[in-house]
Amino acid sequence: MQLDSAQLTALASILRLGSFDAAAAALGVTPSAISQRVKALEDRVGTTLVLRGQPCTGTPTGQRLAKHAEDVALLEAQALGVSGNTSPPRLRLAVPADVLATWLIPALAQIPEMLFDLVIDDQDTSADWLRRGEVSAAVTGQARAAPGCDLRPLGALRYHPTASPAYMKKWFAQGVTTETLGQAPMLTFNRKDQLQGRWLMQKTRQRLTPPSHHLPSSHGFVAAAREGLGWGMNPAPLVAEDMEKGRLVSLDDALPLDVPLYWQVARIMAPALAPLTAAIRAAAREALVQGAR
């Protein structure tokens, strides 16, 4: 099926900017023209693509088509070069929150000719966005490549099970045991977060279900541990200074948790994303544990 590029561009602009008026202003046409283009595209594919609202959002098909339009723009920019008068191409990628909070930003900054649209998801599920065709690249915790994707190992992000000294005194005065770990409140990023459970299994060989706070913020996670709200698995780069100054301590110095990470790129986009891939791999070599167990 041959799709009209102007219609696809209109769709992508609406979903990126959130309204028909904003898309019209960005493309230099009237809101009526934008509406007509989207209606023609919806008639062409036989389904609704945009859910009107504040902001407008895309249906699953609409999101996939919008990403396709942006991928085509990126491929064209890579083939022809981006002029100073042309809007930079946009890339949608899925990354874990802790990756964004620790080492990814410097890598993205190495590619000023590209705009980024980041989807935040857990490292265990970020590859699902690739499988659904909703992103073109992802940092994942899965060693198996998604269909149609290339995969490169990056190293491992090290996590420490950390808590404040006061928290340790209150909950672990008798030691960090299976019994005390089953009772002490812990921190959980969200319902997808399995890191605390993985560490508990590694430590106790049992599936424990202690009381848990849900706190979906990497820096908030560290602050919550520092204030004694609970213990949690925190990335080594975020807690290095707190641990050095004694504001946080490890529940077990000999038992960090290394989480392997991988860079996955849709194969068709790999040539256009080669500079980004190089920048991400270089940043990972500096920030992550290489050859982790």
Short summary of the structure?
The protein has 293 residues and is α/β, with parallel strands linked by helices.
Please explain how this structure is put together:
44% of the residues lie in helices and 19% in strands. The protein is of the alpha/beta class and 293 residues long. The protein folds into two domains: 1-87, Winged helix-like DNA-binding domain superfamily/Winged helix DNA-binding domain (Arc Repressor Mutant, subunit A, Orthogonal Bundle); 88-293, 3-Layer(aba) Sandwich (D-Maltodextrin-Binding Protein, domain 2), CATH 3.40.190. Strands 3, 4, 5, 6, 9, 10 and 11 form a seven-stranded mixed sheet that branches. Helix 5 links the parallel strand 3 (90-95) and strand 4 (115-120). The longest helix is centred in the N-terminal third of the chain and has 21 residues, at 60-80. The chain starts with a helix and ends in a 6-residue tail after the last helix.
Instruction: Output the CATH class name of the largest domain.
Output: Alpha Beta
Instruction: Write down the overall geometry.
Output: elongated
| Rg of Cα set | 22 Å
The arrangement of helices and strands along the chain is: HHHEEHEHEHEEHHEHEHEHEEH
Give the helix level as a range of percent: 40-55%
Strand count, sense and barrel status of the largest sheet are:
7 strands, mixed
Content-based structural category:
alpha/beta
Q: What is the average per-residue confidence, as pLDDT, rounded to a whole number?
A: 93
The name of the CATH architecture of the largest domain is 3-Layer(aba) Sandwich
User: Counting H and I runs of at least 4 residues, what is the number of helices?
Assistant: 12
Which topology of the largest domain does CATH recognise?
A: D-Maltodextrin-Binding Protein, domain 2
Cα(first) to Cα(last) distance is 48 Å
Topology, number of strands = 11
